Records
---
Amino acid sequence: MTQDSLFLDRTGMPAQGDLDLWEPVVIPKEAIDAEIARLADLPRPANGRRQSLIVHPRSTAPGLGLAPGIQVTLLVLKPGETTLAYRHNATEVNFCILGGGTSVIGGRRIEFGQYDVWNTPSYVPYVHENTTGALQARLTYSNAALLERLNIHLAEDDPAPAKTVTEAGGHAVADGKRVNPFGTFQLDNGSWLMPYETLINPPSVESPTLHWPWQAVKQNLDKLEALGSDYVGRRLYLLYNPMTGRTNGTTPAFFATMTIRPPKIVDRPHRHISAAINYYFSGSGRSTVEGKVYPWKAGDLMLSAPGWAVHNHASHDEHVYELTVQDQPFNIAMESLLWQESLKLPPLVLGAQAGFATNRDTVAAE
């Protein structure tokens, strides 16, 4: 391909099936604690956001992330501090790892504590506050890295209040309930045609801010310990946001799950196109990824499953609790989510094909 050419000849080139997987990486608790302390020692910035990106060694700008397409940010607020309002067109999973406080997101006020999770919808102004007497630290997972790579990440500090525009020829009427008179219709061969008027006014789905308090989640999660050693699934709950529908998300881009691992539980090896990032906040164990063993402990953050890497996890002598964030919903929406629950079974395109089953109906759980 020459400098002035727009064509790159691929005639007869065989399929490119080999992936250059990013290596798993463990960010130890000690390093996270040191960075929290460093950020807390800085003078308060004008926008109030003391923050550091947690970036994989192989990540490059634009789109710096701990996994391709997943940006992880460590944020710190000292007692009594408040951030300036901020909004962007990414969506977020928020996770408090130290202290507590308040988030005001699109007018909804959420009081959160350690290990609580809550989401931030796209383009909704939000403010974080530390209303406690202790240091606050949060991890935020967003698809900003992907949007930056696509050159479409829009962000602003101190946004002006939103206005509702209803005039004809401009924005749609706020309630969005009018019936399009032109209609979408089917051709004789089964294909469809849709008019422009429907294209630019798709059905809207409310995107709420939801809050999953850790103590409420834990009460339900602990019941999964009753699933015996013969259970072949993983003992977890998805922090589900119904607006994501069939893509099973916490946000339209990511799911967040809370997992309990009783002592000495070993998962069977599996793999999936979606990348997984785990934060372990109780217990210790190991992950085996592409044949290499990575130990971890409470307070460690880990890129535990680069896309399509064979992996499994095991707990040591204590109960393990962990938050896992994956970009599964995004991949389901793109029809790219290959998943191999057992290496003895062929991969399936989850969301387009019927998925896998566990043996939960044959094992006891409260």
---
Amino acid sequence: MTENHSAERPGLSRRGMLGLAGAAVGAGVVGFGAGVAVDRAVSAGAIGSATTYPFYGEHQAGITTPVQDRLHFAAFDVAPGLDRAGLIELLQDWTTAAARMTQGRPAGTYGPASGPADAPPDDTGEALDLPPGGLTLTFGFGPSLFVDATGADRFGIASRRPAALVDLPHFPGDALVEALTGGDLCVQACSEDPQVAVHAIRNLSRIAFGRAAIRWSQLGFGRTSSTSRSQATPRNLFGFKDGTANIKSEDESVVRDQVWAAAGDGARWMAGGSYLVARKIRMVIETWDRQQLGEQERIVGRDKGEGAPLSGGTEFTEPNFLALAKTGGTKIDPDSHVRLAHPTMNDGAQLLRRGYNFVDGNDELGRLNAGLFFIAFQRDPRTQFIPIQSRLAKNDLMNEYLKHVGSAIFAVPPGAREGSYVGAGLFS
């Protein structure tokens, strides 16, 4: 897409500017203390990418946008005592900064190397010499923003919580870590350059100082899905192609039916928005690596090279779950991942996936702490993610090699109009 040359919104609120000035310590944690060991050695074409995506529009960018190669995802908790007006002001300040950064401009008016010499810069500066890198910023609201753990309606919006924004159930096999779950707000930053994505989250966190703080965050690399037919299917850390059957942006009718919420769904302010489910899934890499190739393929339901279903054909051949094997049974195991996740096994339900690989070093036993940071957008988690994951959690052959440690759900409002802010419909 071409750069958006639309008029710029007014600058940050006074509180936003104070946040920029007072968050040096906290911003350091967000920017580089969470394991930013992911190097920037992406392809030269991606590093030099001048691509920009418009921030304002009918839908938020970062959903059907072609999946970028790098991710920095952050969940925030709103500060105790912040009132409704303060929350709205935060969202306005975030919108202003996001609209600037996605077009390759600094987060604040002055930028990192100008402005008053006796005040901190209003941008941290690590993206100063970098192109936009196709940056998208996508914002969401968690269930706890509507009603907190005590049942309090902090911001007068409890009655406007969408019915689809449910608390996710505990699935069989879940080993969730409290510090990796939930959040009042979320920001998904995707870019072709990891430093551009980190810069965006770091500066949004600085702007939020005193009003919201990072609850948890995750860096991701090497997308594990494609959202456009122009993209090749990537591979996950098990070495298999991932997301072959993912929803593509070109499938407009499918996107409309499976991804975008509609006014008739029960929450009119969510029309044109979506629901984001994030799951941090650790892969038991060492055990998987010792498994025979044939067994790996049986578990997945596809061959490891081409990515074709074991029933035959090429990568995009539709699986035939009734095809019989010469040795007895079906060619595709009934409990394989491909079969259990297929729309025909889930009443036609599909997900638009935007997942990423992650490597967070090693654990205390020296094993690789790595896996999949799963992100999926959908129209209604009650009829899409929850039943699909329930089926997988009970029977998927891959469960022996997976450990779900993080989980969250967010309502992603529609895109903002110029002169307004993300989520304005919720408060109107």
---
Amino acid sequence: MTPSTRRKLKRGLGATVFFFILTVVLSNRWVINSTDAYIYTDWALLPFNDVGIVLGTSRYLQNGKPSPEFKGRISAAAQLYEAGKVKHLIVSGANPDDSYNEPRQMYRALVKLGVPDSAITMDFAGFRTFDSMVRAQAVFGLSRVTLITQRYHSYRSVFLARKLGINAVGYLAPATSDGGMGRRNPPREIFARVKAVLDLFFLRTQPRFLGDPVQIKLSDEAEAA
């Protein structure tokens, strides 16, 4: 390989790395800056919506201990239902096999906290956040929704929903065992925001499974409220 060829390769590699870093930075700033105004930490300030979506996460950490993120999302969802900020909850998550079922675990935890089973719908095809948001509109017919998850995940969730035409707001669930909101920004989430932009605007991504429309039925008590 000649010196001039090596120089060209180095310049090409440098340009590629620069473009990659720039794409990551700009995508993350776009996702965060365009959604920050729609994310709430105080339930009293949160707009009323008929339906809230609890986004799936594992009930346990890799070390086998209970996940504070799972507990936080469930507690926040039950709080919003009790306060009348939402009338119905969709628990949306992955269900790849009999041994792992996020919606079922979320459903059981919410019922234990006093949310009636008639006010909960399980979405077993929320394999990704993108899938959950597409299905919220295409399957469940939602035009407005409250998304319940942690801070780092809320930006991408609200971004996806709003770019798909859903008037979405996010409610932050506790992320730590002491009830703190958490400030961590996992590396996986940084790249997931880039993937969200690609899915929406470049890749024409479709959810793994769409299915037939499902009508959300609000309970008589919720409708009266």
---
Amino acid sequence: MSLSQDWLSRLLGMMTVRGQLELRCSYGAPWEVIYSDSDPGEMPYHIVLSGSAVLETPGAGKPQYLGAGDIVMLAHGSAHTLHDGSGARPKRAHERAALNLTISENRGAGPRLDMLCGRIVLAPPHDQFIRAYLPARLVTRTAAVNGNDSEKMRGAAQEQLNGLVALMRTEASADNLGGYAMMNTLSAALFALTMRVASESDDAPVGLLALAGNPRLSPALTAIFSDPARAWTLPELANLCSMSRATLIRHFHDKLGRSPNDFLTDIRMALAANELKRPGISTEVVAETVGYQSVAAFRRAFTQRFGMTPADWRRSQQKKQQAELAA
């Protein structure tokens, strides 16, 4: 009997996610941290443990205020700046190496900031999927300021995220045996738990999380993730959501900027990329596994999404694996 899984478990199961906690910032105002565009597949994150910060991301809207307990992930790897908001010239920061991470400090005498900085690393092509379906910056607030916020955070998920951040803070504060591996593992868990909290919020951002957070649309999302090889029709998906075909299409475009069929194809191609890494499995079998009876149609869809044929993708992954073994 196959195991029943929710959509987020299936999404995380089809991706290779690694985390790395790299830096602990201990600053007094005025201070500033500047990040350039990240390499493909890298998603920077910041956790404000205490104090406050202002996040500026060119092209992603107004500056974002971050307070104690806030977590921000830059899903598109965009260049960004964090500062204290005073406008004063920042004090120069100095770095020193601790056992398992780097500590950055300055001599600012103003309000203090304690912040953890790291990155989530997603293997291709799933990094493309995340960039397409998550907002450029995803802010999760773990500190509820009133009853409504507490309801949005769904209580239990908020407590879990607070507990995870507390554990990361403890590991970052002590030179524990295995601390480096522990902090990196917790970083990967941070990605999964942040996705859970954001999708359960009534105020989820646009994109995949907004789709999941809409009770009228989530049945279609669950159906596609549960059985992506099925030849889903728009009337079938619309019926699951108790709405007309036109309404379903409109909602998908409003939330995702894509049609249900486009979304289904993207899920299929992400799964196909995984299957093609397996030795001894033919392109024909992969095509059928992800829902294509025509190998030609599968090749067209794969090439359109990734800019290379399934055979080229397979060879590129084999070369990558060989290089990693030789290193």
